[in-house]
Predict the 3D structure of the following.
Amino acid sequence: MAGPSQPTWFKSSYSGGSGTECVECAHTSNGTLIRDSKRTNGPIVHVTAEPWESFVRFLAHGRPR
């Protein structure tokens, strides 16, 4: 029996290009994980699907729904 799968992390397109403002995200079955890419063993924030989708829409369109 296989163990739990590891999240697939990707760097946010909103992270700064200087390498000092790096946020990584990983999608899960019920939301998104967020962490500082410079502290991969540090804290991870879990956001459920609905608030995450609202946040992304706000970033894309500048207004909540």
